[in-house]
Please model this.
Amino acid sequence: MMQTHHPLAGRALPGAQGRVSIRPVEDCTRFILRIDPQNLGAASSVWGANLPPTIGGLVSGSGRIATCIGPDEWYLIAPLTEQDAIESAFAALYATTIHSLVDVSHREVGIAVDGPDAVLALQASIAFDIAAMLVGSGCRTIIDRVQIILLREGQDSFRVEVWNSFSDHVWNLLAGICREIELGV
Model:
């Protein structure tokens, strides 16, 4: 299991009057799974829960999150302590099912965006209608020319998954937007 330093460690931006806040998400393990959708049942068995069958679908439970981000692609998140077990389980699956599981924990970081103005904060730099995004869904999108995976975990709760190398930029962008919201700009 690879331990990484969280590039946003120690940062937090609590929202004024609870309108919107951002904070780093605790380190976790992340994978990209590529598999023929016809074999999704086998992958779900190994993952320990049904993987969402449609693009945009998101399932979560027991600290694990899975979202379908392409016709044969899933983004998987789990606690760091489960990384070895997940890798071993999918390695055993290779004997019967062609797939690719790539550990991307070293390249990704999460930022939580919460509060009644979370939609407004994200909408300031994302081109699609954030308000129309269903609770319990996820997608790959762009925030200020940076690719992210955006998860809507609750009505006012989002998770931005971004490459470490762009995390400082995305953090500062969101922090500036939060300050503008706080000032009513």
Observations:
- The CA atoms of residues 123 and 130 lie 6 Å apart.
- The radius of gyration is 17 Å.
- The chain has four helices and ten strands.
- The mean pLDDT is 91.
